[in-house]
Each structure stands twice: as structure tokens, then as C-alpha cells.
Amino acid sequence: MKVILTEKVKALGTVGEIVNVAAGYARNYLFPRRLALLADDKNSNILKDKQKALGKKIAVEKDAALAVKKKLDGMTVELIKKVGANGRLFGAVTSSDIANELEKQGVNVERRLITLEGSVKSLGTYDAKAKLMNDVVANFKVKVTIDAAMAEQLKKEQAEAQKRNAEKKAKAEAAKAEAAAAEAAALEEGAE
Fold this sequence. Notes:
By secondary structure, the chain is an alpha+beta fold. The protein folds into three domains: 2-49, Ribosomal Protein L9, domain 1 (3-Layer(aba) Sandwich), CATH 3.40.5; 72-146, Ribosomal protein L9, C-terminal domain (Ribosomal Protein L9, domain 2), CATH 3.10.430.100; 155-192. Helix content is 48%, strand content 26%. The strands form three sheets. It has a four-stranded mixed β-sheet. Strands 2-1-3 form a three-stranded antiparallel β-sheet, covered by helices on one side.
């Protein structure tokens, strides 16, 4: 069922957009709360008449979106995550994680508006976009870093692994030298 939104509806769209929704959702939620009108010829004409009022609503929402864009553009969101021994994250960074971190920094952006280029499964800096309105897009960076305590633990584990490898190598060389000495001794005995 196609409806014309008269208010901004989370997860659907903004004022004046024509969207396709389930009939029950429209009848039971959108219409009783006056969030939408049925998208027929009559309501389309009414919408055109109300376009000035809707234009003011859209302008207010666009101003708010531009204010958020101004805060977001060039911003770097730092996420501290746990990392496995191979340097990969436990899980992936999602738009929900980014939205929560932005909220902590005082910028309110719905998670569905945030998009990442590819999946974020390792440490590093990634580009992200927030499509605040149809023509308002904010670009920012997401930096994924390792937890400081975990970094120390990984350094210790790597140092221990190097120490074990060096000990194994030394033992192998000692065993090789011992075998060579035993072989040389056996050859000397055989030569006598």
C-alpha cells in the first residue's frame, strides 16, 4: 500500500515522501496517528495544496540535518574493540556500534542512516557516511583501535612465543650437534 508521509517516521522516511508499506501497518499505526495519508489522486492534490506547510517542516528538518552534518563532517569516531591473537576483531563493527558512540559524543544519528564501505573486521581507519536526508550526506571516519590492556597482553604473548621458538631452535641445534658428535664418535670407533 502506498502512503504519503505527513510526519517523519523512523525507519520509513521524511515528510512528503511516498513510501510502500504493509496494509496493516498503514491502517493500524500510520493512519490513526495521522503520520500518513493514502497515496491516491485526492490526497495527492491535497498534498500539493499543503506543500507550503510541508515545505516549512521539510526546511526545519533539513536545517537540523545540516547542523548534524556540520558536526559530523571530518569527525573521527574512535571505537575500542577486543582483538584476537591474529589481529582480527571478535565480531565486526556495525552501524549500531557507531550510532551508540556518536550518541555518547552528543550527535544523534539513527543507525540505519549510517553506511560503511565493506565490513569492518580488523583494526584501522574506515570511511563512513550518514545519509541524513535525500540530499544531505555527512562523511566521517571510524577508527577501530585495540583495548590498551589487551594490547599489553598480546605483546606479552608474542614475546613468550618468540622466547619458546628460540628455545626450540636452540634445543634442535643442540640435538643436531649432539647427533653429529655421536656419529663422528661412532665413525672414529669404526675406523680403529
